Amino acid sequence: MPYYVARRVAQSLGVLVLMSLIVFAGVYAVGNPIDILVNPQSDQAEIARATAALGLDRPLLEQYLAFLEHAVRGDLGRSFAFNVPAIGLILERMPATIELATAAMLIALALGIPLGLWAGVAPRSAAGRAIMAGSVLGFSLPTFWVGLMLIMVFSVWLGWLPTSGRGPTTDLLGVPVSFLTVEGLRHLVLPAANLALFNLSLITRLTRSGTREAMQQDYVRFARAKGLSESRVVGAHVLRNVLVPVVTIAGVEFGSVIAFAVVTETIFAWPGMGKLLIDSINALDRPVIVGYLCIVVTLFVAINLAVDLLASWLDPRVRLGRAR
Fold it and tell me: φ and ψ at 172, to 5 degrees?
């Protein structure tokens, strides 16, 4: 186990360094933030001073090495637009994004697993066919359109839920969260449902496929031969084996939800990291953009490692010591 974890950490560090190089070169090759941050009527001397103050007059490789050196110490640079540490801006918005992503994944798991089991146990029933048809819609409908429809139906027509914002927050262990209040939950429902739709469909189809495969296995026949009820067979034997791929995919998708919540946060004006990224792109705030991507990739790496360890616990056939 220690060797496996050490090897995975070393691989993860290599991925982070490679990603930072690619992202840094790509972001710094597009546009010039001086054109946005400095008055267009400024003279060349003032523009040169601003360029030097932001360190943009140095070669790209030198800028990257300086960024990497500071990043190791936890310093991702200062925001060009706000003149504050970029990591501070990102971490300030992170709780909102984590809360939204967690709520979305909980919705997807809480509905997707039982729906997938139902469709897998009774694939030819009307309910099973309806569940699979609904999962196709979940894959096909664009997120921005679904978000707009949710706002139109539940906010404009029915007036049940607010259209945007996060609502009031309450500190939980020093972290501001909104799900502890009724008004906060009302603000959370629509964006979380919108963000959960794709993963709900994915988990439903994955669970249904795993259930259909597990129902044909010998251990299920043996369990039935022992006289176990169908609910016991499905709950104790089929579900445990279905959970292995579901947990793996859900863990990876949780990282994706965090990274790609940009559209949902923009539609619902949710004050998370995705909204900050869009604002930073509009202002060409390079330190914030690069810092955001570095933090998101770090979350991906940490989540993937946790998923691997959890999958090994769920499936006794997995042996970490055999990994090469």
Answer: -125, 110
